[in-house]
Structures are given as structure tokens and as C-alpha cells.
């Protein structure tokens, strides 16, 4: 059994490579310097991530490729590179290199091999307790606090974007700055994207977004992690968005009966419709649930629910990928005719 309860901060590891500022190599393809291996590490909304090896050093990295057919795709990647190259923190994925060969852009990232947070939590060997949840949440809040201190809003915080460093340790890193934005107090920032289940009401309502928008997502992540239930998810994205705009939610009795008042208070202070009333990252780190030693009661019933939730998600993702590939196939057929 794996108990994730050792203190993570005592043994903060050195970065695998010194922090660096990255400038995109234009009209250059990564194959000149890296062996891109066929092993796919993951697929996201925009890109596919492969294992790769730098020839000069023999070091392993993750290479994310995004096809930039539209100007907008390139602009988005350039923004992601610009934002990432200024974020140097142990809870944040580090950028190593960037390429633009004219058609495809590639970013070379620190390699993380422990898999997505929820996959790790549902592992048969893993013991889900409030204490293990606080070990993860503390690091996530710490990372988000750093991002905010650099004037960046992540805007796509969700379980898939929290990776574990290893299959057995408790360290995590926040990934995917594809939707992140720099905050400018002189400009009103509104966006219409994100993942409905984890997105704040102000995004769905196309109201002004700020750092507090990320704090809502942390509330949803924490709710799901502790209970295996997702507070706003509906049958369709539209249903989910309606639930989010209403911002009405409660603690599902069967899942929260064994959860402490501190944990519930932590979530209550994040899932508030009025963003200005939500805890900031600094306040969340000072919340008693994260400050004190949390309960070690085994939450195996909730873990079973979380497992069902993760498996359902995997199915939805697989079906969507097949639909997308079929669409691409149809396009190729048309081109061939
Ligand atoms: P997108 O911007 O297209 O959504 P992501 O950056 O979220 O793409 O990456 C997609 C998936 O690839 C992630 O969910 C994760 O499983 C995997 N991945 C991303 N970065 C890394 C990394 N540095 N190391 C290992 N796997 C990664």
C-alpha cells in the first residue's frame, strides 16, 4: 500500500536542468537535435506529446507538437512559450527548447513519468485519505500561487493538467499553459474557453476573469479528489455550463459524511460565485485544512467512486479521439478524390 503522507517540502529536488529562458528556433525542426521516439506520452486539446531524447546530452524530454495551420494556432503557441519561459518553480513544468519549422511548432519540456494525478490516486496500491489529498492540494495551491505572483492566470486547471513526478512519490507538477494569460490590470480580460466541468462562472458568463478564476477550478479539483463526484458535471457540456452559471452545489451526503469540516470549509471558500470572495492562493495555503495534519481515515468508498469517474472520462476521451480521427479521415478522403 502507498501512503502519501511524507512532507514534500523537506526534500524539494533540484531541477533536472538549470532554469532557462527559451527563444524559439525559427525555420528549424527539432529532429536536428532530438530523436523523437514513437512513444506517445499523451494527447491534449491542441497537441500530441512524444517522448524524445536530446542527442548532445542523452537526456529524455517530452516534445509537444502542435500543427499551426492557422495564424491563431501559431499565436497561441508563441504565447504559451513566452509565458512558460518566465515560470521557474519546482511545481511548474519547465520549458527546455522550442522550434517552429513553419508548419508545426514543437516545445521540448521537462519529462514527467508518473502519469496524471487521478490515475495515480485510483491505483490499487494507493490509500486515499484526507491527508494524502492535502499533500497534493498544498503543492497545487503553492504552484498556482507562484503562477499568480508572476501575473499569469492558468485558466485550464483540471486533473489532467496535474502530473505526478513518479509512480510512487507524492510530488506533482502543473502542466499545459496553452490557455494561460498574462494579467494586465489596465485591460479587462474575458475568455470563452476552458473545460466546462472545472471552469468558473465568470468564464461561462463571459464576465471579467482574474486570478480568482483559477481558485474556483482548485475548488472543483479538491471536491472531486475527496469524493469521486464532480459538483457541476451534467449530461452535456451545455448542461454542465448551466450548472456552473447557477453556481449551486452541495456536499453529496454519501461521499462527504466522513469528510472533516475543515476540508468542507476549504472547498466552501473556493466555490463561491463572486470571485472576489474566494480565497486567494496565499489564503488557501494558510487555511487550517492545509496547515494542520489532516485525517488519515481510509476513504476507500470515495476512491471507488473516483475510479468510476476516471474510467468514464477515459471512455469519453477515447470516443472523442475516434470521432476526431474519423473526421480527419473523411477530409483526407475528400482530398484524394
Ligand atoms: P494540450 O495543450 O494539447 O491540451 P497538454 O500540454 O495538456 O496538451 O499535454 C497533453 C497530455 O500529454 C497531458 O495530459 C499529459 O498526459 C501528457 N504530457 C504533457 N506534458 C508532459 C510532460 N512534460 N511529460 C510527460 N507527459 C506529458
Automatic annotation (TrEMBL):
Q: Highest lineage ranks of the organism?
A: Eukaryota, Metazoa, Ecdysozoa, Arthropoda, Hexapoda
Which GO terms fall under biological process for this protein? intracellular signal transduction; positive regulation of apoptotic process
Entry superkingdom: Eukaryota
List the InterPro entries hit by this protein, alphabetically.
Kinase-like_dom_sf (IPR011009), Prot_kinase_dom (IPR000719), Protein_kinase_ATP_BS (IPR017441), Ser/Thr_kinase_AS (IPR008271)
Which segments of the protein form a coiled coil according to its record? none
Among the GO molecular function terms of this UniProt record, one is: protein serine/threonine kinase activity
The record's Gene Ontology cellular component field reads: nucleus
Q: Which family, according to the similarity comment?
A: Belongs to the protein kinase superfamily.
Q: Which residues make up the binding site for ATP? A: 64
Domain Protein kinase stretches: 35-290
Q: Does the keyword Transferase apply?
A: yes
* Official protein name in the record: Protein kinase domain-containing protein
Q: Which organism is it from?
A: Hermetia illucens
Going by the UniProt record, its keywords in alphabetical order are: ATP-binding, Kinase, Nucleotide-binding, Serine/threonine-protein kinase, Transferase
Pfam family for this entry, one: Pkinase
Q: Does the keyword Secreted apply?
A: no
